[in-house]
Amino acid sequence: MANASHTCVYCGASNPAGTNRCKACGAPIEIPIVPPVTVTTINTPVRIITPPVNTQRPDTTPEQIRDALDAAPINDQLKEGLKAAGLGIGALGVGTFIARTAAEATAIAFSSFTIGYYSGATHNGLIALAGGLVIGLMVGLAVKRPIGALLSAPLGVIIGLIAAKLLQPSFPALPLHALLALVVGALAAIIGSRRGSSNTIGKWYGRFRPFLGMTGGFLFAMLGYVIGK
């Protein structure tokens, strides 16, 4: 937009636009020349930003894992540890077998001897014989944990003796101590039994266990019978 007035550079008087000379001093009016505006452009190369490419690692194959484990220096230690653990488990299995066998033998000895002793007190050898064989058979057939094999039959015999003591006055002619000890002890021995071992050695031993139990029951019942007479 043009200026409405021009100022004289000589006298400083203001002159209307379009005046060539100053009205005050007569000097020529110098119109200021506006320098042209230049625009400078800088050609800056455009940077194209590309999104990062997500590189996915290939899946690890079982063969690579196996090779890595084989190459690891700790692998030998792991193998030794597994061997030691296997031996420990095997020893635990043998220990459990021995403990259960000892528990069964103890249960047969106590129960059969007690039945034989009370049978001897009434001079009834038949109950002593039957008690030893039946207790040995039931304990031999039952498969329980060592603590269960140890306590089942003896607790049954003790419960039978307590019941006989309470009922004996009502049936003075019957040898209730030996009879109830035999019945309750045999039931307690077989109740709670679980399935036997599925391996070959366990199956063969399971077939002989009843006969071994009956043999031990017979011997301890006869011993108790002789002592109780």
Task: Write structural notes for this entry.
With 229 residues, the chain is mainly α. It has a domain at 106-228. It is 61% helix and 3% strand. A two-stranded antiparallel sheet has the order 1-2. It is rod-shaped. The N and C termini lie far apart (146 Å).
Please give a quick description of this structure:
This protein is mostly helical and 229 residues long. Helix 4 runs antiparallel to helix 5.
What pattern of helices and strands is seen along the backbone? EEHHHHHH
- Broad structural category: mainly alpha
Shape: rod-shaped
Quaternary structure annotation: single chain
Cα-to-Cα separation, first versus last residue: 146 Å
The largest β sheet comes out as: 2 strands, antiparallel
Point out poorly predicted stretches: none
Name the beta content range. under 5%
Number of helices: 6
Mean pLDDT, nearest integer? Answer: 77
Q: How much helical structure, as a percent, in the residues?
A: 55-70%
Strand arrangement within the widest β-sheet reads: 1-2
Question: What is the β-strand count?
Answer: 2
Radius of gyration, CA atoms, in whole angstroms: 56 Å
How does the SSE layout of this entry go?
Layout: E1 5-7, E2 14-16, H1 62-71, H2 75-121, H3 125-141, H4 146-167, H5 176-190, H6 200-228
Antiparallel strand pairs: 1-2
Helix pairs in contact: 2-3, 2-4, 2-5, 2-6, 3-5, 3-6, 4-5
